[in-house]
């Protein structure tokens, strides 16, 4: 019995998710330049033809992942700019980040792949394409820090420097999880938040 259009849509979505998860793992393991569509197909347990039916090239697949990253950064910036107590907004942002790193959907590998793209500008133009979304997140976080300092929730200090230190700490946690795998437990969110609260328990 032939599949219905709805069943075909479900199958396409599941295949696309498998391709994205496999691509992130392969790009994280080998880097963009050394990775191949054949490796991604093997990682996903799919035929090479299935991969090419969804993405015309390795470059196009990577661009798709970059677009996802940009969308995620902008969405995070919008949440940070939302209504609510600054500490609660940062707690939600940080908890989501740490949960993604600990999850089974390649969160820490995805973070590594995006960092590699920015630092090496590979493929060419990757850093520029992500820069606007990153600036949006950075600006929203710094503004939230200022608001939290004004309300007394966060310690005083330069908001831009505080933002830089906080983002560097999250980046370090992500790198540690990638290098050490499941043997490295992410710190409790309250410990991470102490950088903003001046060492006080949030």
Protein model, in words:
- By secondary structure, the protein is mainly alpha-helical.
- It has two domains: 1-56, Arc Repressor Mutant, subunit A; 59-195, Orthogonal Bundle (Tetracycline Repressor, domain 2).
- The chain is 77% helix and 0% strand.
- The protein contains nine helices and no strands.
- The protein is elongated and about 65 Å long.
- The termini are far apart.
- The model has no long low-confidence stretch (mean pLDDT 87).
In short:
The protein is mainly alpha-helical and 202 residues long. Helices cover 77% and strands 0% of the residues.
SSE layout and pairing:
Layout: H1 5-34, H2 37-44, H3 48-54, H4 58-80, H5 86-102, H6 107-120, H7 126-151, H8 159-180, H9 189-197
């Amino acid at each position: 019995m032939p599949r219905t259009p709805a069943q075909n849509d479900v199958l396409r979505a599941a295949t696309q998710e498998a391709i994205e998860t496999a691509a992130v793992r392969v790009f994280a393991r080998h880097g963009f330049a050394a990775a191949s569509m054949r490796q991604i197909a093997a990682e996903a347990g799919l035929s090479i033809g299935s991969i090419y039916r969804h993405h015309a090239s390795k470059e196009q697949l990577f661009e798709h992942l970059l677009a996802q990253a940009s969308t995620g950064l902008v969405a995070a910036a919008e949440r940070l700019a939302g209504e609510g107590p600054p500490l609660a907004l940062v707690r939600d942002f940080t908890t989501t980040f740490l949960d993604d790193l600990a999850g089974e959907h390649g969160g820490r590998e995805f973070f590594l792949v995006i960092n590699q793209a920015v630092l090496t500008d590979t493929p060419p133009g990757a850093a520029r394409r992500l820069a606007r979304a990153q600036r949006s997140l950075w600006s929203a976080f710094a503004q939230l820090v200022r608001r939290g300092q004004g309300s007394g929730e966060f310690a005083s200090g330069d908001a831009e420097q505080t933002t830089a230190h906080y983002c560097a700490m999250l980046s370090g946690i992500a790198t540690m999880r990638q290098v050490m795998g499941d043997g490295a437990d992410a710190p409790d969110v309250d410990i991470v938040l102490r950088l903003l609260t001046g060492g006080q328990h949030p």
